């Protein structure tokens, strides 16, 4: 959510990813698109593009591309806790599984790899809960310029890493 302040280029990347061209690419690869975050506050055109792209790619069987739009890790956790409270749960009943199930990312496997674009070497609260054991990749340019070659380089580096899950 914080990333959208003054960053119209990010919106362009969203539209491109969810456009007919982007959707065709996902369909050709047989992957589904899942967009996570608060849709309130996004303009109607972007909301419709996201809804259409998710619906058209829902049958993808080779994998899933998760895109976080208008997302903040703290906001996700706060919304999840509020959801649990509205269900009438007591403090004693709340556990990690319950929190995980209440988050926007519920149903999405914890990411094995997170790619951070823009040259920043921090996550800024991104996937604060579900990304705790993810391998991190940092790319110098912004999201709209992220290419297939960049993805290939990230995947190649990832394959050479030994995952330790916090150990």
TrEMBL record:
MF term (GO), any? ditrans,polycis-polyprenyl diphosphate synthase [(2E,6E)-farnesyl diphosphate specific] activity
Q: Which UniProt keywords apply?
A: Transferase
UniProt cross-references to Pfam families, sorted A to Z: Prenyltransf
Transferase listed as a keyword: yes
Any one of the GO BP annotations: polyprenol biosynthetic process
Tell me if Transmembrane helix is a UniProt keyword of this record: no
* InterPro entries associated with the record: UPP_synth-like, UPP_synth-like_sf
Q: Which NCBIfam families match?
A: uppS (TIGR00055)
> What PANTHER family does the annotation carry?
DEHYDRODOLICHYL DIPHOSPHATE SYNTHASE 2, DEHYDRODOLICHYL DIPHOSPHATE SYNTHASE FAMILY MEMBER
Kindly provide the name given to this protein in its UniProt entry.
Di-trans,poly-cis-decaprenylcistransferase
